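Pipeline run #58 for the internal structure catalog. This entry was flagged by the ingest filter as a single-chain record with no existing model, so it goes straight to prediction. Upstream metadata was stripped on purpose; only the residue string is passed forward. Reviewer on rotation: M.T. Logging verbosity set to normal.
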Amino acid sequence: MPIYNLYMGCSVPANYPNYEAAMIKVATAFDMQLEYMEGVACCGSPNLRAIDYMGWLIVNARTLAIAEKNGYDIVTPCNGCFGSLKDTHHFLKHDDDYRKKVNALLKKDGLEFKGTITPRHFVEALYNDIGIEEIRKKITKPLDGVGIAIHYGCHVLRPADVTEFRPEYLDELIQVTGASVVEYPIWKQCCGATVLPVDENLGIRLARDKLKSMKESGAEFITVVCPACGNQLDLQQLGLKESYGEEYNLPVLLYPQILGLALGMDEEEVGLSMNRVPADPILDHLTG
């Protein structure tokens, strides 16, 4: 049974209890033991990083140092948290001066960043530690080839040498459920979530471009692994309907929701009712 430190971050517990519940149920199905971390703070992504780089380093190094105490890798369901922890881990392992400065401050709490554990996204741990074939064995209600467009999110893909996350992870994780991956031209484009506070019009345009590209490419559903991206692509559909008269009707499903359904969980267990764009039509595609 693989054991992990679970770093939830702020957004998932506050806004997406369905993400948390579906993730825990999926983890349990594969004997992944997720231990909730205690005494940790917000990762500060992206705001703290922009205004106080050293403060951002310290808060994330502190989380990593707490995880190092029991020696288990960190997993998180949030792209922003993943990006912050990965960037901090990579930077401090390669910069002796900053590592010494950070550890001098962490020492006050009896902590030290050593770089002995790895921060990981939950879906990456699912892919690499459990594996596609083991997941396939537990699929009892496969999806009948329904077309799903994947929005990976910026912080899991860039920079690739730091995140070590490949798009193929999510592609194969979608396909093992019986669904098909819909390719669309601007799959690398940002959804605009982090742009909204500084340029609302641009943030909305980015989401609109993304939704339009997905719809025109034949997608029936969207999947994400990031609460901010999920909120943006879900919520903006309501605004675009009101402002532009455009209806996309693309339910946004968190990946553990999709996998949970394919594993035989019901819609209540994976929290389909919490989606703003009704996601229950995916039930029509379940077979088995």
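catalog note: The chain has a mean pLDDT of 96.
catalog note: The first strand starts at residue 3 and ends at 6.
status: ready for reviewer M.T.
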